[in-house]
Design goal:
The chain is α/β, with parallel strands linked by helices. It contains ten helices and nine strands. Helix 9 links the parallel strand 7 and strand 8.
């Protein structure tokens, strides 16, 4: 374990790596002020359990309640700005031969920081689709204006079939996108170095990726303020935030 520091061996490993994979979680976006999943239960939704809102059944039961919550979350995401951790990851891609970026976050902060080809394992707030025919639905690029306490908001209708448009995120009891998940497992097996930042390592199947990478001979570095389930499989455990440590790693290596 290292506290607020970067091991010279890690710097050398990063500098010499040809294939780097980055996996990010909610902690990275929380540093930009985006409420974490359960922290978003304020106002109208404070009496609900997060898991009870993030299901297909909840949307069928009360689509306006669920759509309103996700539009409020989208407003928060679009009002936030990428932090130094997002920017360091984008910068890292210009130094290594190949970088693949997978995120559990549903915002677009990586994209706005300059990262390309971001793979969203849990979907995106910005890409809703019809709940019936799965046709993609385009939302305005500007942030919605929602009351801080929240409100019920009727979802739009699909222009193709008239069905209700649902948030483009992966809900409980839904499978992760098979193609993106397959690419994540393939990437962690092919990479020289896996950087895991801001995730607790408790949500499966994504939590398996560091262990799969380690078994394949890939070295794993975790960036997290506190201990997590991933500590045992990581080559380096850095104690601190992504906004603190990722820029330090990149600047030390180059």
């Amino acid at each position: 374990m290292m506290a607020n520091g970067v091991d010279p061996d890690l710097v050398a490993a990063l500098r010499n790596a040809r294939n780097v994979m980055v996996l990010t979680g909610a902690g990275v976006s929380a540093e930009s002020g985006i409420p974490t999943f359960r922290d978003a239960l304020t106002g109208l939704w404070r009496n609900f359990d997060a898991a009870s809102l993030a299901t297909p059944e909840a949307f069928r039961r009360d689509p306006a309640l669920v759509w309103g919550w996700y539009e409020w979350r989208r407003m928060k995401a679009l009002s936030a700005r990428p932090n130094a951790g997002h920017l360091a990851i984008a910068q890292l891609s210009s130094h290594v031969e190949h970088l693949s970026l997978f995120t559990q976050n549903v915002d677009d902060l990586h994209e706005r920081a300059g990262s390309r080809a971001v793979q969203h394992l849990h979907g995106s707030l910005h890409h809703p689709r019809c709940a019936d025919c799965a046709r993609p639905f385009s939302l305005p690029a500007s942030a919605p204006v929602e009351p801080e306490g929240g409100r019920r908001l009727a979802p739009p209708a699909c222009p193709a079939c008239g069905g209700l448009v649902r948030p483009g995120v992966v809900w409980f009891n839904e499978a992760l996108p098979e193609d993106i998940l397959a690419r994540a497992f393939a990437s962690c097996r092919a990479s020289d170095l896996l950087i895991v930042a801001g995730t607790s390592g408790t949500v499966y199947p994504v939590a398996q990726l560091p262990e799969v990478a380690r078994r394949a001979g890939c070295r794993v570095v975790q960036v997290n303020p506190v201990a997590s389930e991933l500590d045992r499989v990581c080559t380096w455990n850095l104690r601190g935030t992504a906004a603190q440590l990722l820029p330090a790693m990149v600047s030390r290596a180059w």
